[in-house]
Amino acid sequence: METPTNRSQTRSTHQNIFYNPTFRAVIFQVIAIAALVFFFYSIINNALTNLETRGIATGFDFLNQEAGFGIGLTLIDYDETFTYGRTFFVGLLNTALIAVLGVILATILGFIIGIARLSPNWLVSRFAAFYIEIFRNIPLLLQIFFWYFAVLQVLPSPRQSLQLGDSIFLNVRGLSIPSPIFEQGSGIIFIALIAAFIIAMGYQYYAQKKQQDTGQQSPVLLVSLAIIILLPLLAFFIAGKPISIDYPALKGFNFSGGITILPELAALLLALSIYTAAFIAEIVRSGINAVSHGQTEAAEALGLSRNRTLRLIVIPQAMRIIIPPLTSQYLNLTKNSSLAMAIGYPDLVSVFAGTTLNQTGQAIEIIAMTMAVYLSLSLITSLLMNIYNKKMALVER
Fold it and tell me: How far apart are CA 110 and CA 280, in angstroms?
């Protein structure tokens, strides 16, 4: 039989559970997740109902249908007879191309400008400051328009091309340069190149261990470059020169042969790299300034030159501060590449979320796939930068 004392203890236990912060936090999170799931379910269900009412099919079967339109820049085989699924991969590779090239160029230019910003030379530091203040305060879309319409679209026609040497031609339709033709037996050169990189990495590890044990430094950069250049070159001659060159030539009203870098690609790459480099330069400057000046004074006392001090002492310590905000700039550059649609560069947004969406009407599926691609690219970038950041972080002993 339950006594008043037992009932009082039961109520007290229930009250203690309810007022427990951990229990309440779990309950509130469960309620919030349930509400969020219900919200998205309602939106998706309503959208699917509206599409069915209008007679628009749902699902991903449209990816197997023939696309019927051409794409100006493709890194894989493509023509009008390929499917919409193929257009997705073409747009994805074009987006990845501009993102990777943009990150590389923006990083190089940003580090140069950031270091120049701290130069004791007044003219160099003022030029770097002028660059930063100009390009980071002009909207990126306007910079894309500037490079495309005001610079590249005023170039001469192919017949009046600006010629650089005997085989490089610049005109309104792009930059035509020679391209390599890989013939039978060229695979050995790529194998040699991979082997050269592995040997160079092994030599770098050996040089670091030697320096730790004996304090003697080895010319890592020069030796590595020699290995990477000479080993594939040796394989090239041993294999009987299986790589030839295809030179561009004017035929009619345009150039054929070689590789043509489209003005849309050049304008977008220039704008993204120059714009993002202005922010990276400030990140680099602040990271270098955060390193104690005593480190520089100690290096000078040891007789190290300014360049060696910057490369061996200051930059490695500054990287621990530079990497986190640098990751954000890489993510911004990748997402900003979607502005390519404004000048007709065939990226994922233009080709898949633009033309394919207009032809099929599969809005939910196409937009969801496009969002998933940008989310995946951002997560991969963050993962790689976090790994690098962990490698550069100080290890507590």
Answer: 5
